[in-house]
């Protein structure tokens, strides 16, 4: 196995199934999306970049809250689904291994990067592009799989940064980076960000009836996701 994930649009294979899963599922609709939206805060009148936008579920809510949304994804099918779902937003196919050269410097108020960090080989370069397009008073909100939960599943050294392959319960084959929290923090610092807030979210209480067992575990154990808000380091200009 090579130490890279590459630019193959893995989710393109099961994009429609993912939309059905994430639209109202516990992990996405009642756990990650509420956490990310809370960290974004008031978005009315803002230009929000939805990086790795998936089928447009975050963009749909951001638009409803008054944001102007520009989104992109590596998967052409995801971009197609997002455009159908949120016709008022703008979406395009984009690989985070390449610069966002279609976006000017200081052109967006916030960047949302939800549950996609694990699929990027050069994360520092991606973060630097986010910092470039952000206004000086902007913010990056990202979520990622909780590294402790990853370690519980995969074993080995928690501190090893490595690529793994896994088949998720829906039969989806995925390939992604496993990395400790300190790696993400250092990558953000290297790219010129300061972490303003870090959250280990819990599912919203009203979701308890969807899946009581998973709800109880996500409420009590660090096995799901984490989310953070980072701002451009003003010392770097």
UniProtKB/TrEMBL annotation:
The keyword Plastid does not apply. GO terms for molecular function: S-adenosylmethionine-dependent methyltransferase activity. It holds the Pfam family Methyltransf_11. Residues 49-142 form the Methyltransferase type domain. One of its GO terms (biological process) is methylation. Keywords: Methyltransferase, Transferase. InterPro entries: Methyltransf_11, SAM-dependent_MTases_sf. It comes from the Bacteria. This is SAM-dependent methyltransferase.
């Amino acid at each position: 196995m090579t130490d890279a994930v590459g630019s193959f649009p893995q989710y393109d294979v099961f994009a429609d199934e993912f939309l059905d899963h994430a639209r109202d599922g516990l992990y996405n609709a009642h756990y990650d999306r509420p956490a990310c939206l809370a960290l974004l805060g008031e978005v009315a009148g803002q230009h929000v970049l939805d990086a790795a936008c998936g089928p447009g579920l975050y963009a749909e809510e951001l638009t409803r809250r008054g944001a102007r949304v520009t989104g992109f994804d590596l998967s052409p099918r995801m971009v197609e689904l997002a455009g159908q779902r949120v016709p008022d937003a703008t979406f395009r196919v984009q690989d985070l291994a390449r610069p966002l050269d279609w976006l000017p410097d200081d052109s967006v108020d916030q960047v949302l990067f939800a549950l996609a960090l694990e699929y990027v080989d050069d994360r520092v370069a991606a973060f630097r592009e986010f910092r470039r397009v952000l206004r000086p008073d902007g913010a990056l909100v990202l979520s990622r799989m909780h590294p402790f939960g990853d370690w519980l599943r995969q074993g080995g050294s928690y501190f090893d940064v490595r690529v793994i392959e896994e088949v998720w319960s829906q039969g989806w084959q995925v390939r992604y980076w496993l990395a400790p929290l300190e790696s993400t923090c250092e990558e953000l610092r290297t790219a010129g960000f300061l972490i303003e807030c870090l959250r280990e979210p819990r599912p919203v209480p009203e979701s308890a009836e969807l899946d009581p067992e998973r709800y109880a575990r996500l409420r009590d154990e660090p096995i799901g996701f984490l989310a953070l808000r980072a701002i451009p380091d003003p010392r770097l200009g």
